[in-house]
Each structure stands twice: as structure tokens, then as C-alpha cells.
């Protein structure tokens, strides 16, 4: 039988200055992704990312202070040490910042670089739609993403990630 985890509801809004700073790091975005379905300790995160635990702890604390990660009940780790597991709150889906594009892309590239080519499903699409159809496309795309985001998470299912970027096509000549 599969288990599910539901995200806590948050209202979609512009990130505060502290939240913008928290989301302005590709490393912190990767930590959020790692702690989405499994609570991980600082040491476990550091091992996966091949980083110094002190560096990771700084980033974890920033995410906890801004509400993107939550500390769970301490547990005994290796050799009986007290360790605190952290879990993503889901808040990052509901806060946005104009400054998050570069770190988001950097996190995506770091994650996808570890995969074999056969596991990278990528495509590009050029669109030429009138403004009202472009707005409809954006709205329907977001509604589809929101629908799947809102479904209960099956923590036993294989995890997948989606990166989506929509931007004016700079490779095409602009008409006057």
C-alpha cells in the first residue's frame, strides 16, 4: 500500500526580501528538492551533495528561518549522535521572485547533469500566438501544473522532476 503526504496550503504571493535571498541559491533549491519526500539530516544532505556539513547547516538554517524547511523531532544518527531531520514545507511553490530564475536554472542543470542521456526527456517548442491565446496557454499550463501539484503525493512512486521555462524567443527575428 502506498503512503501519501499532502502539502500545507499557502497563498501564492511575492516573496519577501528574506525569502528572495533564501531562494536565490541553487544549493538551497536543491536542498528543498531533496527534502520533499524524505526528511534528511544536515549530515545526510551534505553527503549527497558532497559538501561540508557546516556549509549545508548554514543553508538549512536559512531555509528553516524563512519557513521553507521545518525541523522535525531529533533522532539518533550514526554512533548515537542526536541529529535533526528536515522536511520541505511546500511553501516555495507559493512564493515567487523575479530573482529566482538563475538559481533555479543552475539547480536544474546540476541535477540533470548527474543523469544518463536516456533519462533526460527534453524538448523545445517555438510558439507564435496572438496575445489572448498566449495568455490562455500560460493560464492552462499553470492550471495543469497546479492540478498535479495538489494531488496527494505517493511517496512510494518513482520521483520525477519538471523544469519549465517560458520566454520570448530571442533566436527569431522580431517584426517591426
Automatic annotation (TrEMBL):
Q: Name one Pfam family in it.
A: HTH_5
The record's annotation in InterPro entries points to:
ArsR-like_HTH, HTH_ArsR_DNA-bd_dom, WH-like_DNA-bd_sf, WH_DNA-bd_sf
Single annotated GO MF: DNA-binding transcription factor activity
- Taxonomy, superkingdom: Bacteria
Q: Which residues form the HTH arsR-type domain?
A: 21-114
Q: Which Gene3D superfamilies match?
A: Winged helix-like DNA-binding domain superfamily/Winged helix DNA-binding domain
User: What SUPFAM superfamilies does the record point to?
Assistant: Winged helix' DNA-binding domain
Q: What is the recorded name of this protein?
A: ArsR family transcriptional regulator
Q: Which organism is it from?
A: Ornithinimicrobium tianjinense
Amino acid at each position: 500500500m502506498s503512503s501519501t503526504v499532502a502539502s500545507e496550503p499557502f497563498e501564492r504571493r511575492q516573496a519577501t526580501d528574506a525569502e528572495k535571498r533564501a531562494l536565490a541559491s541553487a544549493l538551497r533549491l536543491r536542498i528543498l528538492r531533496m527534502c520533499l519526500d524524505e526528511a534528511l539530516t544536515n549530515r545526510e544532505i551534505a553527503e549527497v551533495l558532497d559538501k561540508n556539513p557546516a556549509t549545508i547547516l548554514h543553508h538549512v538554517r536559512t531555509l528553516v528561518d524563512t519557513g521553507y524547511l521545518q525541523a522535525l523531532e531529533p533522532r539518533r544518527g550514526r554512533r548515537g549522535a542526536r541529529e535533526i531531520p528536515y522536511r520541505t514545507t511546500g511553501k516555495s511553490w507559493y512564493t515567487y521572485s523575479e530573482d529566482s530564475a538563475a538559481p533555479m536554472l543552475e539547480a536544474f542543470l546540476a541535477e540533470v547533469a548527474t543523469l544518463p542521456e536516456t533519462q533526460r526527456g527534453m524538448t523545445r517548442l517555438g510558439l507564435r500566438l496572438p496575445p489572448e491565446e498566449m495568455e490562455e496557454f500560460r493560464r492552462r499550463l499553470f492550471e495543469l501544473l497546479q492540478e498535479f501539484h495538489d494531488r496527494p503525493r505517493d511517496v512510494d512512486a518513482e520521483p520525477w522532476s519538471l523544469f519549465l521555462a517560458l520566454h520570448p524567443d530571442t533566436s527569431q527575428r522580431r517584426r517591426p
